[in-house]
Structures are given as structure tokens and as C-alpha cells.
Amino acid sequence: MSAQSPMPESTTAEARSAGRKASESGRDREFGVLVGFDGSELAALAVRFGAAEAARRKTALTVVTAYPLPTMIYPNMASIPSEPEDEKARKQAEKTLAEAVELVRDHPGEKSFRTAPGDAAGVITTLSADAEIIIVGARGRGGFVGRALGSVSTAVPAHAHCPTIVIPHHATSSESHGPVAVAVDGSEPARVAMVTAAAEAAVRRAPLEVIAVLPAGEEWLYWYPDLELSSEVTARRQRQLTESLEKEAATLSEQFPDLTVTTSVPVGDPTETLVEITSRAQLTVMGTRGRGRIRSALLGSVSRGVLNHAEGPVMVVPS
């Protein structure tokens, strides 16, 4: 689907270095850390973040720039451009990608750079089958990101074959000293996210915080005033969830003996609570969807809401 674009020979040699070792995560996929780049400021931050991730994971760094194939319909011979439009688009993509080459010129690990024709979200989703992790900016120029949250930062986490980290404008570095936080709700996607978060925390040598947000009862009382939701009922449910999380934490501690695991069950709006957590966590991990009413949705409402307002990197783990 995508061919390696002509790049400086030194870059190509780095991309094909022999004797690749298994990454820190235990996976050895061709593209390693795959970063989408469109030349925007936030995409540049994603590339730097990706380089740090690749170094931490001891895996390859791959940067890709997608370019749309133009619809070449000309009313007459005089309107045909001297240079084919698809060739012009490819050259522009290579020019954009050259900026990424400069951004990580000092990165000591294996790295490669490529352009690919087609829809950006489709390109990176396809490549994700051979990637360990994807990193994209929350917004950009419209090639890899753009619109409210971003067409790619919305579509890729929902369809990718591996976890996706979305970098917001607020993020400044991947070297935060905060915990790795994971949101759980008892669903199977949340359990997958929790184990993934534990592995991330272990690689980062960071503590893991497992969080289950209990929605406030007042929200239900507005619609169902006859419900008997008292502070005592909320406290009882909070204790039940805490006990459940502590059991999950004990299981994780057996799998990751060097990992410090804490649990919390805050009461409040799930999206608002998790957005606040993103401001102090070096990485916040979520599943694509949970126990919501529309369980078939590719990206749940809470996941979308957190991605829209996050103040730190957010990882979405496919179920």
C-alpha cells in the first residue's frame, strides 16, 4: 500500500539495520513506534515524543506522511498541468517529511521515514498492523489531523490494530514524573486497557493508578426522582468498587512484582474527572469503549470526551 519514499541514503541505512532486537514490550514489529507527521507544530511534538518512546522501548521509530491522491479530471488538453498532480503531491509530502528527518537527526536508534498515498487515517491504520504503538497529534494541518478533535486522532484509535497515543497541545514532554493512570469500568475492554497500562508503567518505571469513576447519583435523580439514591447508597457502592479494584491490583502486582499499584474510586462526571487526571499523569490509558449504552460504538463517549479535552498524552487501547 505504501512504498518507501526516496530519502537520504544514511536514513535508509538506519531503517534497514540488521540484527534488530526484540523491543522492551516483547514485541518486534517492523514499524515499532509509528508517528503520523503533517508538518504542524503539534505533529513535531508527536515526533519528538515518538523518538523518546522508541528509545524507552528499545524499538524502531517510523515517521509517515500521507498525501491524498488528487482526482485528475481535465475538461481539455490545455488544462492538463505540466507536472502530474499526484507527483506534485508526493513531492510536497517528501518536503514535509524532510522536516521530521531534521527533528530527530540526533536520535541514536533505528529510524525510517516514508510517504504514502491515500487518506491519512486509512494509511496509518493499515500500517498499524505492523506497529507496536501509534502516536499522533490531537490536531494539525488537516493531513494527519484537523477539525474539532481531529479526523485522524478520532479515527485511528477506533480502528487501529495497536494502541494509539494522542498528544494534545498542552503536552510538553514525554518525560513526566507522574503516574500512569488507567480508567476502568469492569468491562472487558477496560481490563485489556488495565493490563496494557501496567506494562506501560513497568517500561516507564512509574507507579500505576487504577481509577473507576462512579457517576454522581444526582444525575440519575433528575430523571428518576423516585430512585432511592442516598449518600449511604453511593458510599456502599464506592466501597464495593474499591474492594473489586484492590483485587485487580493484587493480580497485577503478581504479574508485575516491581510495580507500585494504587486504586481510587472518585465520584463525579467520568469525562471531567479523567480530564483532570490527564493533567497530572504522564500517560492516561483508556479502552475504546466500555459499559456505555451504545456498546457497539467504535469510540465511546467518555473516550472521545477525554481526547477532546485532555491536558496530557492519552493512550487508547483497542479491544
Number of helices: 10
Shape: elongated
Question: Mean pLDDT, nearest integer?
Answer: 80
Low-pLDDT segments: 1-22, 143-149, 292-298
Q: How many strands, what sense, and barrel or not for the largest sheet?
A: 10 strands, mixed
* Proportion in helices: 25-40%
Give the strand line-up of the largest sheet. 3-2-1-4-5-10-9-6-7-8
> At the third CATH level, what is the topology name of the largest domain?
Rossmann fold
Give me the secondary-structure category: alpha/beta
Considering the protein shown, what is the CATH homologous superfamily of the largest domain? HUPs
Helix and strand element order:
HEHEHEHEHEEHEHHEHEHE
Quaternary state of the chains? single chain
End-to-end Cα distance, whole Å, is 25 Å
The radius of gyration over CA amounts to 22 Å
Q: What is the top-level CATH class of the largest domain?
A: Alpha Beta
> DSSP strand (E) fraction?
15-25%
Number of domains: 2
The tally of strands reads 10
In the CATH classification, which architecture of the largest domain applies?
A: 3-Layer(aba) Sandwich
